[in-house]
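Problem: given the chain below (365 residues), write out its structure.
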Amino acid sequence: MKTLKIGDLLARVPIVQGGMGVGISLSGLASAVANAGGVGVISTAGLGVIYNEFSKNFNEASIHGLKEELRKAREATKGIVGVNIMVALTNFADLVRTSIEEKADIIFSGAGLPLNLPSFLKEDSTTKLAPIVSSARALKVICRRWIGEWGYVPDAVVVEGPKAGGHLGYSNEQLGDPAYSLEAIVPEVVAAAREIGEQHGRYIPVIAGGGIFTGEDIHNIMALGADAVQMGTRFVATEECDASPLFKQSYIDAKKEDIEIIQSPVGMPGRAVHNSFLEQVKQGLKQPKSCPFNCIKTCDVTHSPYCIMLALYNAFKGRMEHGYAFAGENAWRCDKILSVNELFSSLKAEFDAKAASLTAYTTAQ
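Solution.
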């Protein structure tokens, strides 16, 4: 595995841990991944609920929580720690400003186009910026704005395919269309990133995610031009993951048919592990009476079958009967809880085995 270079940041293992809210990837998981040589990522989604005791004001609690999680991560690692901030969050701007002030190593931003992200940087800012996209077209739109308005070339780009967990940047029809598979879109995004980078004298690393499960998967996707991979699902089934053991167990217990596409209250399709809560939603038995958080711009409480923030928070705490677990398409393949170091060792061994088999095949020819 080659080193991932993002500006002056060097990750000796080209694995970025995906940001998973609510509470699934906080300082515990992020620092463990950073210590193992990858890029650890704290999710900002739901920090206002997790730190509700600090303040009943959702935004104030979110900002305090972000500062606390970054502080705890910094105490636990000298490695690379980034944050994931969804464009769809109502307090997106405050979370971005705080991340930059607190010198997070990198901001990953998706769930919408982060068109104004560079506008928050100051002259002495060190935080890197990486948009999350689902197509080469989206990357080009972002770069036109970033470069045209602020002269800023993305420090990296994450391309997420339709097999990812959580909210998906695809329509239901596109999810099963081979033209939108990660294998199909990675070469297109790589080509766009190389072209834009060459035009502006910068190299834009491409990080590919969505359904990557084994070291062989990592080898195969990097062979298509990706510089690194983003993995979320595999890190849920680790000892250091910040979620409740009951949340992790839902992955271990899941069968292939339990991984389903749901329609999220935020207006996007999502992928989750089927359970009794989602069954009740299908039967129309869940209905919020008010919106306690106003956390997502696209969520309309008058038409929402449930409060997604509360459902995900309950799952994070292990109250699975009152929530559910977002998960990637391959979550059912998780069969035991590993340490982050054990997972990294396993992925490296599988990667090396794939590389060796190709070398042996080429030599035999």
